Amino acid sequence: MNIKPIRTEEDYDAALARVDELMCVPKTVEEGDELDILVTLIEAYEAIHYPIGETDPIAAIKESMKANGFKQKDLAPILGSESRVSEILNRKRKPTAAMILALHEKLGLPLETLIKAAA
Predict the structure, then answer these.
(1) Widest Cα–Cα separation across the chain
(2) How many other CB atoms sit within 10 Å of the CB of residue 71?
(3) Whole domain around residue 40: which residue ranges?
(4) Exposed, middle or buried: residue 92 (CB in 10 Å: 0-12, 13-18, 19+)?
(5) Res 18 pLDDT > 90
(6) Is residue 99 part of a domain?
C-alpha cells in the first residue's frame, strides 16, 4: 500500500483510478483498508476543490428518482397519489413531515435535505 496525500489534480486523478481498480476486484484486508483511506482522501480533496452548494430538495428528489429508475407513480403510494407527487415535484405543495420521512426511507436522501422542501 503506497498512499500519499492528494495535493494536485494529477494526484486526484491517480487516486480515482486506483479506487476504480480496487472496486473491480475481490479485496484483501489490506486492499480494503487502502480503498477506505483513498475514499477519505478523495472526499477531503473534493470538499476543498469542488465544494457543493446547498442542495435543492426537489432537485435531489428528482435526481434520486432518476438514479433509481423511479417514475412519479412509484412515489404515489408513499405520498398519497400521482397528483400529489406532481404537486410536490412542481413546488405547488410542500411535503408533510410524514411525506419527508417516507421519501427519506424510499430514496435514501438525508432528512436535512428533505426538510428544506417543507420550509
Answers:
(1) 54
(2) 11
(3) 9-49
(4) exposed
(5) yes
(6) yes
- What whole-number distance in Å separates Cα of residue 16 and Cα of residue 22? 10
Same domain, 44 and 82: no
Give the CATH number for residue 90: 1.10.260.40
What SS3 class is residue 5?
coil
pTM of structure: 0.55
Clarify whether residues 45 and 84 are in a common domain: no
Q: Are residues 62 and 87 in the same domain?
A: yes
Reported as a single tens digit per residue, the pLDDT across 89-116 is 999 999 999 999 999 999 999 998 899 8
| Phi, psi for residue 2 in degrees, rounded to 5 | -125, 85
CB-CB neighbours of 23 under 10 Å: 10
Task: Concatenate the DSSP letters of all residues of 64-93 into one string.
Answer: HHHHHT--HHHHHHHHSSHHHHHHHHTTSS
